[in-house]
Every structure is written in C-alpha cells, then in structure tokens.
Design goal:
Length: 742
C-alpha cells in the first residue's frame, strides 16, 4: 500500500490534470470564466464544488450513509451539487441559499436519474432500443429533458451506455442491449436529445455517460461484481457506446462501481484520464457513482476515506457523489502535499465550466420555474410515448391468433394486466403510477369495457386464494385469453440480479390452468430483461414482449392486439434457451473448435452436452402480422480501397396482406484478422415501412472505418482482407455476399 501511496503522491507532484484538447469557442469561454472565478475561491470552496450530496428527503439509490446538513454545506460553499431532490420548491430553495447566502453565490447543479422519462414515462431503455428507431429515441430524450428542466433539473444521469449480454444482471433494463454498433447510435441520440444544440436553453439538460466503464459485464451477472476482461474485448465490444456519447458532446461522465482490470473505476486514472480525456477527447467533468470513492476501501485498494479521496482526485475524478470524502479530506490532502492545488483547480474548473455552459451563472433559476401543468404529460408527448411503446414491443410467436378481431371477448388475466406501478418500470423519474394507462384500460377503451373480463389470477410470485378459479371462469366466458405475466418493476434495474430467469411459478400455474380451458392464450410478457421462455412459447398461441412499457403501455398494447398497428420491434438482447447459457450474445467468436452445426455432437467441440448453443430467440428477432421477403443481395463494391465505402443492396418485399414495418439488418464477418473476431457483427440497419405487396431496394453504406477492430498492439484500425456480409431480419440472416478491402 505504501508503494501505491508513494507512487500516487509522486504523480500528484508531477502532473496536474492536463488542459482539455481542442476546445470550441463556447467551451473556451466557459473555461475562461471558470479560471477567473477560481482565483477568488478559497481552497475549501474549490473542493466544495467537487462534492455532491443528497438531501435529507431525497430519493435514495444506494446505502444511505452519513446524514448531512444540506443548508449549512450550501451556505458555506462546501457542496457543488445535489442529487435526487424530490420537489421543485426544494430545488429552488437550495439554489436560493447557494446564490444568495454563500460567499461567492456559485449556483448548484442538480442531477437526477431521468433515464426513461421524467413525468411522461417511456418504456424501460432495453425495450426502447428494440424499436431500432434512432429518431424516436432522440425524441424521447428531448421530451424527458424538457420535463426535467421544467421540474428544476439541470442534469440527468443518462444515457447508460453499458453493453450487457447477461440477463441475470437486472440493469440490462437500463441499456440498449448487447450490440456495440446499435448501442453507440442510441447513446449518441440520447445525448443529442437531452442536450440539444444549446445547453443553456431552459429546455435542455446535461447528459451523463455512465457507467464508465464496462459495468455491464459483472462476473456471473451479480450487480457490482468484479469486471475483468482483455483490453481487446473492452475496446471492441464495450467502449463504442461510451465513445459515441462523448463524441456527441456529453458534458459529464459517471465512473462505475466496479473494478476494471484490477483497479476500481473511480480511482482508475487510465480509464478516466488517459482513455477518456486524452484519447476520447472528453473535456467535461466526471462524477463518481453513489459513494464509489469511499467504496475503494471495500474494494481493498484504499486504506481509508482520505486515501480514497486522494486516489479519486489523482485519477481525475471531479466529483464525489453522495459520501463526502472529498470535502472531508480534500484540504488535508493539499496541505500534506498529496494532492496539488493545481489539481484541485483543474477538477474545479471543469465543474464550473459545465455550470457556466448550462447558463446557471446567468440565471440560476431559469430551470424549474415553469408551470408544471403546461409542460408535463402534454398530450402530444403522451402520443409519442404510446408510439415508442408500440414500436418497442416484440412479437416472438403467433400461430394466427393475433391480431384479434373486432368485438372479440377477451379474458384479461395476470398480475401485470392492471399494474400501473409496474408498467412504468424501475427508476421512473418522477413518473406517477396514477397517470399510467394500464393494459386493462387500453383494452377496455379499444374493445369496449363489456368485452374485457378482468381477473388478476395471481400475484407476481405468490398464488392468490381463489385466483386461478376466478381466472378460469373469466376464460370460459371469453373468446380468447390475454395473459399479462412476467416480472415486476422491483425485479428490474439496480441490485436485482437473478439466477432464475423464468416466469415465476405462481404465474406459470395460471398459464397451465388457462391453457386447460381450451381457449387460445396470448401471453404478454412484462420484463426488463431477457428471459427463458421455453414454457410460454410451448404453451401459448402468441407471445408479445411488452417490457415495462411506460405511462402509455395500455393503449400501445391495444394498438398491437387489435392490429391498428403492426408489431415491428426486434430484440436487442438474445433471449437465451436457459440461464446456463448466460452471458449469451450473437456476436460471439468462433473458437478453435467450433461446433460444425447446431446438431453436431462431436465430443471435442465447443458445445454443451444437453443444451443447444443457440439462444431461443436471437438478437434482431421480431415478427410482424405480415411477412417480409429478402432477396437479391448485391455487393455493389466487391473490392474497396481502405478508407472507402462498402455498398450493399438488397430487395425487401412485404409479401403479406397488411402494411408493416421491419428492420433490415446487415452483418459482417472479418475472415482473417490479427485478433479473433466475432462470427457476425451488426454494421448497418434500416427501419422500413412497406405497404402490403410493396417492394423496396435498401442500400447500405459501410465506411471501411466502421470495420476497425483492436489489434495485438491495442491500436484500433481497419485491415485489408476478405469479409462476408449478410442481410436479413435478424442476426441469423442467410442472404450472403462477399467483399474485399484492398
Ligand atoms: C446508480 C447510478 C445512479 C446513481 C444516482 C447509483 O446507485 O448506479 O446509475 O445514477 O445511483 O442515483
């Protein structure tokens, strides 16, 4: 330990955090302002800007820890930010203390987890990503930002850019699934949506790229667990969404809880300085995750809070969230020469610059003074939420039972059928369950109240006395059973790791009983994660994944069940055959002993003895009420110069009887490379809308720079060589072509 302290202390003397590269005019102005202000600040005030606290009544998203007197800290200039304050009045009250009663009147920056909506709640992010609709995602973020800004927030802790392929990990619900290419597009769209073109507008808020880095790969899917992977893997699969979000201009980043290659992220200078700032060009500020500085003690890399604070500061971590080691020990560290005042100045100026860019020094109250009723739950925004929810839902199976005819008598059963709180999912910002339009309400409105016979049937994990009997009675009187089952909001998001990912037994018993009535059964699966659905797929006549669909889940479900809209969502996370396959993702590597075919049982090949290698539903999968036929794949550029653009065309025809939308997906494989490459990688996609009988030619353009990968020397570039390419409606696409980069 002594050696570490010595090395870090030496580092403190040698370096101060370097000046951010390539500043825009606006950024330069902000830094100039910050530098001038810093000259007037005491050391304690500067360290105060690096401290974030929660208030007494705040929403708590971690161990509650030490109680602080928010007002006193604010008045003394010993805090720069609060998180998760619950009301606009409270936000304004604290801001008033900061600007009117603290010595220099430096405004506070308020942050909150607005991750899939503020008041108007959209589907949980995994669901939203299944729309593959980048514009819709950007629109979501714009609406969320406007509502959050009106509430009084300047800053959202979103987008979560963590790639994850492990359905045991509950936080997959907050991300965009398993693919780095799609994840990068979504991350950038969210940043654009939150921040807009003008950060100082009272309708935009600062984004926060989290959790840096690789938080989505905890060992065995257990939250907060160790992350250990090769740098090649990290750069190829995990880095792209963070990188895209930084490139899109995100002004803050959050360091993750996990250790990464043996060093906790919040004290990991390579991660949050060398890679993030020097390589990716980030020049905003980095906040730790909740108490993550202090948690370096539990990680076993810091002796105490002071040591942890020192390591955070020297790693270039600007802000300490929720615990308080920065403000408690910062001055001592400077006095003892363990952290230089120059380093503190650097850390502080980056925080002040973001406050300046948000316009807080011009008018610290410009956010949060609107009349809420004018901004929240606007009808046009609820309409967008309904459309995004419908686009996010994924039809996994359908033997013709869907869509339902007009006047169908529906037995609507299940613990999620009328569950206003569950449908808005984990961390629903300031979403209110009493604004949720439930599936029950949505179906009653669309099919007529008299045509919807509702019975809850069971709780999420426990039977209800007489519940099954009541459900069966309803089923007998109906034409069809719609069974809304799955996992509730408490089984989604942070700290909700599971080792079983099947529908809970009480709900399976309900399915069995309903099936015995002989009625057709449509399963609606509410979930924030991929699940093992073997049982439901075998027994149900159709399965539609509805996720936790947000405020407007009910009308969106009605739109799809009635056929007013055609399902068009495609999975962004493979649904495994069983939990033992986890983590599982389509872009796996071939290995030196690949299985020759899905049924080949050669002993010394890479396979399970009694279980398929393949997931039950692959990445990209999703059905529609119509059918799309893909043909005539043409590689328009069979040979391309390095630096050029690969062009691939394909015909897509709607060969069914209904209009519909599909997501055409292009995958490539780099046949020979310096490091092992995935068997397939998504490199293009397009959402298409085709009338019944209509055909379109889709042309994909792939710059060869998009085919770059991490080499043995850890540099990333594209090589000349041969590639295979496939286009189709999921990651098992079979239409194949070839191209060569010269
Ligand atoms: C989560 C972050 C979140 C923070 C503040 C932490 O527990 O990991 O994602 O932004 O709390 O609520």
């Amino acid at each position: 330990m002594k050696r570490v302290i010595f090395a870090l202390t030496a580092l403190a003397l040698l370096i101060s955090c370097s000046v951010a590269p390539q500043l825009s005019k606006e950024e330069q102005e902000a830094y100039d302002f910050a530098d001038n202000l810093i000259k007037k600040m005491t050391l304690r005030e500067k360290i105060g800007q690096l401290q974030q606290f929660k208030t007494r009544n705040a929403t708590v998203t971690g161990p509650d820890g030490v109680k602080r007197d928010a007002e006193a800290y604010t008045r003394n200039g010993e805090v720069g930010s609060f998180l998760s304050v619950k009301t606009t009045d409270e936000l304004n009250r604290l801001q008033k203390i900061a600007v009117e009663e603290s010595r220099l009147g430096i405004p506070l920056i308020f942050g909150y987890d607005i991750i899939h909506g503020c008041r108007t709640i959209f589907p949980e992010n995994l669901g939203m990503s299944c729309s593959w609709d980048i514009e819709a995602v950007e629109q979501y973020a714009r609406i969320a930002a406007e509502e959050a800004a009106a509430f009084g927030y300047h800053w959202t802790f979103s987008p979560m850019c963590d790639i994850s392929a492990d359905p045991r990990w509950g936080r997959v619900s907050e991300g965009a699934g398993e693919d780095p290419y799609l994840g990068a597009k979504i991350a950038a769209a969210m940043v654009r949506g939150y921040q807009g073109d003008n950060l100082s507008s009272d309708k935009t808020i600062a984004a926060c790229v989290k959790h840096f880095a690789a938080y989505g790969a905890p060992q065995a899917g257990r939250d907060y667990h160790t992350v250990d992977m090769s740098e090649v893997m990290f750069r190829n699969r995990y880095l792209p969404p963070y990188k895209a979000a930084v490139k899109a201009g995100a002004v803050t980043v959050m360091s993750s809880f996990n250790d990464f290659m043996g060093v906790p992220a919040s004290g990991n200078r390579w991660l949050i300085h060398t890679l993030l700032r020097e390589e990716l060009g980030f020049n905003g500020f980095v906040v730790s995750d909740w108490a993550a500085v202090h948690e370096m003690i539990a990680h076993g890399t810091a002796a105490d809070g002071k040591d942890a604070a020192m390591q955070g500061m020297l790693a270039h971590l600007n802000m300490d969230m929720a615990h308080g080691d920065y403000i408690t020990y910062g001055e001592e560290l400077v006095k003892e020469g363990k952290v230089s005042e120059r380093t503190i100045n650097e850390l502080c100026r980056e925080v002040l610059a973001v406050k300046y860019r948000l316009g807080l020094f011009d008018n610290p109250f410009k956010y949060g003074c609107h009349n809420h009723d004018e901004v929240m739950y606007r009808p046009e925004n609820l309409q967008v939420a309904r459309e995004v929810a419908a686009k996010s839902m994924v039809l996994l199976s359908n033997n013709g039972v869907l869509p339902l005819a007009e006047n169908t008598k529906i037995a609507l059963i299940g613990p999620l059928a009328d569950a206003p709180r569950d449908q808005i999912g984990a961390w629903p910002g300031f979403g209110e369950a009493d604004h949720s339009v439930t599936i029950r309400k949505g179906l009653e409105e669309r099919f007529g109240a008299k045509n919807v016979l509702y019975a809850k049937g069971s709780d999420l994990r426990a039977a209800i006395n007489g519940g099954i009997e009541e459900a069966v009675r309803a089923a007998r009187k109906a034409d069809v059973v719609v069974l809304s089952i799955g996992l509730g909001y408490k089984e989604s998001g942070e700290a909700t790791s599971l080792t079983e990912i099947t529908v809970p037994e009480a709900q399976q018993a309900l399915l069995d009983a309903l099936k015995k009535t002989g009625k057709k059964v449509v399963v609606l699966l509410g979930t924030g994660r991929a699940m093992d659905l073997r049982n439901e797929i075998e027994k149900a006549d159709a399965v539609l994944v509805t996720w936790h669909g947000g405020t407007m889940e009910g009308p969106a479900v009605a739109d799809l069940l009635s056929g007013d809209k055609n399902p068009s969502g495609h999975l962004t996370m493979s649904f495994p055959y069983c939990v033992g396959q986890a983590p599982i993702h389509y872009n796996m590597k071939n290995t030196g002993r690949p299985r020759k075919s899905p049924t080949n049982n050669e002993k010394y090949s890479s396979r399970y003895m009694y279980t398929p290698n393949e997931p039950l539903f692959p990445f990209g999968y999703g059905l529609s009420y119509t059918e799309f036929e893909y043909s005539d794949l043409q590689v328009l550029t069979p040979e391309v110069e390095l630096g050029g653009v690969v062009k691939v065309g394909v015909k897509v025809k709607n060969v069914g009887k209904r209009d519909g939308e599909d997501v055409a997906q292009l995958y490539v494989r780099d046949l020979v490379a310096e490091t092992t490459r995935p068997m397939r990688e998504l490199k293009g996609f397009e959402r298409l809308s085709l009338k019944a009988g209509e055909e379109k030619v889709v042309e994909f353009e792939i710059p060869t720079s998009d085919l770059a990968y991490c080499h043995r020397d850890l540099t990333t570039s594209t090589d000349a060589g041969d590639f295979l390419v496939w286009v189709g409606a999921d990651s098992n696409a079979t239409l194949e072509g070839k191209f060569t980069i010269k």
